[in-house]
Design goal:
The structure is a single chain. This protein has 194 residues and is α/β, with parallel strands linked by helices. It folds into two domains: 2-36, no CATH class; 40-185, Alpha/Beta hydrolase fold, catalytic domain (Rossmann fold). It has helices at residues 2-8, 13-36, 102-108, 134-150, 164-176, and strands at 48-50, 53-55, 65-67, 69-72, 80-85, 96-97, 100-101, 112-116, 156-162, 181-185. The strands form three sheets. Strands 1-4-8-5-9-10 form a six-stranded mixed beta sheet, sandwiched between helices. Helix 5 (164-176) links the parallel strand 9 and strand 10 (181-185). Helix 4 packs across helix 5 (164-176). The longest helix has 24 residues, at 13-36.
């Protein structure tokens, strides 16, 4: 963008430096405003309650980690819950941006929603980075599904992912076969397991 501006407008060196700094800082400021704006925050009304889950990263692990989550229930009882898993650089607030709220739409459609901060993200625990892989995150997702079925009383659990969250759900479903449906969005990456 800076190249386009300098091609069309002759800016002095000081103005170019200022513009360059603005173009770097502006996205950070916009992101901070979106995260700090109450409308963009996860719904915290009477329909939503903080529900953290204790998980292990592998079946043999003795160390437990906390996954931060928010369980939102519609006004009518339901046996279905959607577990929302954000992309690599996002937390649970991805699903609630401004006027667009996936959570609100799901609640209005009569479905419960469980939004989480993936392990190592947001309000969740941060184990050593080399222990957090798509396989360990899929195992974490599996434990969330089991918790919602057994302690949450949900008969149907849907995995909803965005980008990296979609990859996590694909591995979880292929490994554990315990979700009733998948909604995979924003996943246009070409996988190369090698």
């Amino acid at each position: 963008m800076l190249g386009v501006l300098t091609a069309n407008v002759q800016l002095g060196a000081a103005s170019r430096r200022w513009l360059h700094r603005l173009l770097i800082v502006l996205p950070l400021l916009v992101s901070a405003i979106v995260v700090l704006t109450p409308a963009a925050a996860q719904a915290r009304g009477p329909a939503c309650q903080r529900r953290d889950t204790s998980v292990a990263l592998t079946p043999a692990a003795s160390v437990r980690h906390r996954v931060a989550g928010w369980l939102c229930r519609p006004s009518r009882p339901t046996g279905t819950v959607q577990v929302l898993m954000s992309g690599f650089t996002y937390d649970h607030t991805y699903w609630e941006v401004g006027d667009r709220s996936y959570v609100r739409a799901a609640l209005q459609a009569g479905m419960a929603v469980y939004t989480v901060d993936r392990i190592g993200v947001g309000a969740s625990d941060r184990p050593p980075a080399d222990q957090v892989t798509v396989v360990t995150e899929a195992f974490v997702a599996h434990q969330l599904v089991q918790q919602l079925r057994h302690d949450g009383g949900f008969r149907r659990v849907m995995g909803v992912g965005h980008s990296y969250g979609s990859a996590i759900w694909m591995v979880e479903a292929a490994s554990h076969h315990d979700v009733d449906a998948l909604v995979l969005t924003g996943y246009l990456h070409q996988a190369n397991p090698v």
